[in-house]
Design goal:
InterPro entries: Ald_DH/histidinol_DH, Ald_DH_C, Aldehyde_DH_dom. The protein is an alpha+beta fold. 24% of the residues lie in helices and 20% in strands.
Length: 91
Amino acid sequence: MLDVPLLIGGLSAAIFSRDTARALALALALAQRVESGICHINGPTVHDEAQMPFGGVKSSGYGSFGSKAAIEHFTQLRWITLQNGPRHYPI
């Protein structure tokens, strides 16, 4: 394990290892400690998938993007009605 605390927060992070099979447990433990919206193991940081929600951590980024998270973030629920013709009141 690492002896130094991870205080960095961000949009994306990557952890690289030469021997993924041997280092997988350590890489996964490290990835869980990294505070970022996406953490790749042996992969580029410029990749995301449209169906997955994505957002930064701490002061990084602006909200959540991608998939259902983007729709919820950028949508404000409103109720609009239209009266067509005279209204009938039950009296």
